[in-house]
Design brief:
The complex is a heterodimer of chains A (295) and B (346). Chain A is mostly helical and 295 residues long. Chain A is built from twelve helices and two strands. Chain A has helices spanning 2-30, 38-56, 59-81, 88-111, 129-147, 149-159, 161-166, 171-195, 209-219, 224-244, 257-271, 291-294; strands at residues 248-249, 252-253. Chain A is globular and about 65 Å long. By secondary structure, chain B is mainly α. Helix content of chain B is 72%, strand content 0%. Chain B has a single domain (44-313), classed as Orthogonal Bundle (ABC transporter involved in vitamin B12 uptake, BtuC), CATH 1.10.3470. Chain B is globular and about 60 Å long. Classes of the chains: A mainly alpha (295), B mainly alpha (346). The interface between A and B is large, with 51 and 56 residues.
C-alpha cells in the first residue's frame, strides 16, 4: 500500500515538468510552429532557475529567471523560424544542441565547475507549489483555447493563416507570441527539474523530457487537457520504471527498458492511426507570408 | 557556387560567434582557435582522431542527405546507427567461430540490415499511414536506445565489465587499422565511407532509380504524373538512409571498440543533420562537412585540457551556431531582396 501511494506521488511529481513543457508546445504547435526545441528550452529554464535560486535564495525568483531564460532562447528560435523562415526542424535541433553545449559552458563560467550548479538548500527548494501551478496552467490553456478570441486566433494561425490575415489579424504576430509563450512555459518546466525534482542543475538534465512532452502533446492530439493527462500517463511510466529498477521478480531483474520505451511506442501507434487518429494543425511547419511579402 | 559561399559564410559566422563566447568566458579567442587547430591537426595521432570522428559523420550525413533528396527528414539516424552497431556486435558475440573475411563481412551486412529495417519503418509509416517521419524517427530513437540497452544488459551482457556493453567480438571480426596514425583508431571504415559516398553519388546522379527518388523530393505531384511510384520511393529512401546510418556500426564495433557500448555515439546522428545541410546533400560536400565537424569535435577535446574556462561541450555550441547559420540561409536572400517595392504604397 505504501508502495502504491509512493508511486502515485512520484507520478504526479514526475509529470509536472512534462505538463509545463507540453502546454508550451501546445501553444506553439497550435499556432503552426513545430517545437522540437522544447528540450533545449527546458535545459535553459533548468539552468536559469538554479542560478536564480542560488543567487536570490528564493525558488520563486528562480522560477521567474528560469522562465526568462526559456523566453530568451525561444526568442532566438522565433526570430529564426518566423521572419528568417528557417526550417523549423533544423532550427529546433540547433537550439537543442546549443542549449546542451551552452548550459555547462555557462556553469563553468559562473561557478568554475563543469556542468553543475551549487546545491540548493532544502528550505530554498520547491516542495509542492509547481505541482498545483502546472494544473493551473493547464486550466488557463484550456480556457484560452476554448473560450477566448485569442485562442481562436491561435488556432486559425495554425490551420488557416490566410483566413486570419483576411480578418485583419497578423498571423505571424500570433505565432511570435505563441512561440515566446512556449519558451516561458518550457522554461518553467525546466525550472521544476532543478528546483523541485532535484536540488541543482546538472548537465543534460532534461534527458529527453522535452521530446517526451512533445510525444504527450501528440498523444493528446494537440488539446490541452488530453495532453496533460498523457503527461500523467508518461509520468506514471517513468515513476514505475524508477521503482522497478533493480527489483527482482522470480530471481530475475525486471527489464525496465520496456517500460521506458512505452510512451514513445504508443505515440507512434497514435501517429500511425492504429489507436485513434492524431491530426496535426493544417499549417503546422509551413511558413506564412503576407500577400505583399510574397511579391 | 553561391551555395558553397553560403556554406563558408555559415561556418565563419558560427565559429566567430562561438569564439566570442569563449572571449566572454575570459579566453583569448585567437589562442582558442590555435588550440582547436592544434587539437584537430597538430600531430599524426590528432589527425587520426579527427578522421576517426569524421568516419561515422560521413555515414550519418549521407543518411540524412538521401532522405532529404526524397523530400524526407531523417532525424532517426541516431537510432538506426545504434541498432546497426548492436547487430554487428551481436553477430560477433553469437558466432565467435567465424573466420576472416566471412566474419567482418557478415557483421557489416548485419549492421546494414538492422539500420535498413529501422529506417524502413518510418518510411512505411509515412508513405502508407501519413505519419510525419520527423516525429516517428525521434520516437524510434528512444525505442532503439531502450532495446539496445536491454540487449546489452540482459541478453549479450559482457560478464567481465561493469559498463553496459555486449561481450567482445573475436579478433577475426576486426577490420584493419590504418597504421599511419599512431594509436588513433582509424580503420578501413574510413575508405569504406569514402567508397559509399561515391556509390551514393552514382546512385543519385547516374541511375534511373536515383533520378526517380530525387524527382519525388523535387515535386511529388509531378513525379506521380510521370508515373513514378512515390510511395515506394519514399519507403526506399528511408530504408537506404537507415542502412547508411547502420554502417556506423562497422566503424565503431569492427573498427574500434570490438563490442557494442551503450551511448557510444556522441550524437553522430544529430550532427549528421548538420553535415548534410552544410554539405548541401551532395556526397562530396558531405565528406568535407564531416571532416569539419570531426575536426571541431576532436579540437574541442584539446580545449578541455588546455584552457581554464572551456569544457569540451563547447563543441556543441559551435555546432549549434553553425547549424543555426545554415538554417537561417533565407536571411541572406532576405537582405538581398530588401529594397523591394511595397505594393501597399502603390
Amino acid at each position: 500500500m505504501a508502495m502504491i501511494s509512493q508511486l502515485l506521488a512520484s507520478t504526479l511529481r514526475l509529470s509536472t515538468p512534462l505538463i509545463f513543457a507540453a502546454m508550451g508546445g501546445m501553444l506553439s504547435e497550435r499556432s503552426g510552429v513545430i517545437n522540437i526545441a522544447l528540450e533545449g528550452l527546458m535545459l535553459m529554464g533548468a539552468l536559469g532557475a538554479a542560478v536564480g535560486t542560488v543567487a536570490t535564495h528564493s525558488p520563486w525568483l528562480g522560477l521567474l529567471i528560469g522562465m526568462g531564460a526559456g523566453l530568451a532562447m525561444a526568442f532566438i528560435y522565433a526570430l529564426l523560424v518566423i521572419p528568417f523562415r528557417a526550417n523549423q526542424i533544423v532550427a529546433g535541433m540547433a537550439i537543442n544542441m546549443l542549449a546542451l553545449g551552452l548550459t555547462p559552458f555557462l556553469c563553468k563560467m559562473l561557478y568554475g565547475v563543469t556542468g553543475s550548479t551549487p546545491q540548493i538548500s532544502y528550505p530554498e527548494q520547491f516542495h509542492s507549489a509547481p505541482l498545483y501551478l502546472a494544473w493551473i496552467v493547464v486550466g488557463l490553456c484550456w480556457y484560452l483555447m476554448k473560450f477566448t478570441p485569442a485562442g481562436l486566433w491561435l488556432g486559425f494561425a495554425g490551420e488557416h493563416p490566410e483566413a486570419l490575415e483576411a480578418a485583419g489579424i497578423p498571423a505571424n504576430r500570433i505565432r511570435w507570441l505563441a512561440v515566446l509563450a512556449s519558451g516561458v512555459l518550457a522554461g518553467a518546466g525546466g525550472a521544476t527539474l532543478s528546483t523541485f525534482l532535484s536540488s541543482s542543475f546538472a548537465r543534460n538534465m532534461a534527458a529527453g523530457r522535452g521530446f517526451m512532452a512533445l510525444a504527450a502533446l501528440i498523444f493528446g492530439k494537440w488539446r490541452p487537457i488530453p495532453a496533460a493527462l498523457a503527461c500523467v500517463l508518461f509520468g506514471f511510466a517513468d515513476a514505475a520504471q524508477i521503482q522497478l529498477q533493480g527489483v527482482k521478480f522470480r530471481g530475475a531483474e525486471v527489464p525496465v527498458q520496456f517500460i521506458q520505451i512505452l510512451p514513445y511506442l504508443v505515440t507512434i501507434l497514435v501517429l500511425a492511426g492504429f489507436v485513434g487518429r492524431a491530426r496535426a494543425p493544417k499549417a503546422l511547419g509551413k511558413h506564412f507570408s503576407t500577400a505583399n511579402e510574397r511579391e | 557556387m553561391r551555395r558553397l559561399a553560403q556554406s563558408f559564410l555559415a561556418v565563419a559566422f558560427g565559429l566567430a560567434l562561438g569564439l566570442s563566447a569563449t572571449w566572454i568566458a575570459g579566453e583569448n579567442p585567437w589562442e582558442v582557435l590555435k588550440i582547436l587547430a592544434r587539437g584537430a591537426f597538430g600531430s599524426r595521432e590528432n589527425i587520426g582522431m579527427t578522421l576517426f570522428y569524421t568516419t561515422p559523420l560521413i555515414f550519418t550525413g549521407l543518411s540524412v542527405a538521401v532522405a532529404f533528396q526524397a523530400g524526407l527528414f531523417n532525424v532517426g539516424a541516431e537510432g538506426q546507427l545504434n541498432l546497426g552497431a548492436l547487430a554487428a556486435a551481436a553477430i560477433g558475440a553469437l558466432l565467435p567461430g567465424l573466420g576472416w573475411p566471412m566474419a567482418p563481412l557478415l557483421a557489416s551486412l548485419a549492421a546494414l540490415a538492422a539500420g535498413t529495417v529501422w529506417g524502413a519503418i518510418p518510411g512505411w509509416l509515412r508513405a502508407r499511414r501519413g505519419s510525419h517521419e520527423v516525429i516517428v524517427t525521434i520516437m524510434l530513437n528512444f525505442v532503439a536506445v531502450g532495446l539496445s540497452t536491454y540487449v546489452a544488459l540482459y541478453v549479450l551482457k559482457n560478464p567481465e565489465s561493469q559498463n553496459p556493453e555486449t561481450r567482445p567480438i573475436g579478433l577475426a571480426y576486426m577490420i584493419p587499422r590504418l597504421g599511419v596514425f599512431g594509436d588513433a583508431p582509424v580503420s578501413a571504415a574510413l575508405p569504406l565511407a569514402l567508397l559509399v559516398a561515391a556509390i551514393v553519388w552514382v546512385f543519385l546522379r547516374r541511375t534511373a532509380l536515383g533520378y526517380e527518388l530525387r524527382a519525388v523530393g523535387q515535386s511529388e505531384p509531378a513525379a506521380r504524373a510521370a508515373g513514378i511510384d512515390a510511395t515506394k520511393m519514399r519507403i526506399l529512401a528511408m530504408a537506404i538512409a537507415g542502412g547508411l546510418a547502420g554502417l556506423v556500426g562497422v566503424a565503431e564495433v569492427l573498427g574500434n571498440a570490438g563490442k557494442f557500448k551503450v551511448e557510444f555515439s556522441p550524437q553522430y546522428g544529430f550532427i549528421g543533420i548538420a553535415v548534410a545541410l552544410l554539405g548541401r546533400n551532395e556526397p562530396i560536400g558531405i565528406v568535407a562537412a564531416a571532416l569539419l565537424f570531426g575536426a571541431l569535435h576532436q579540437g574541442t577535446r584539446e580545449l578541455d585540457f588546455s584552457t581554464e574556462h572551456i569544457t569540451s561541450e563547447v563543441s556543441l555550441v559551435f555546432q549549434g551556431l553553425i547549424i543555426l547559420a545554415v538554417s537561417a540561409e533565407p536571411v541572406t536572400n532576405w537582405f538581398r531582396s530588401k529594397p523591394r517595392i511595397n505594393t501597399d504604397e502603390l
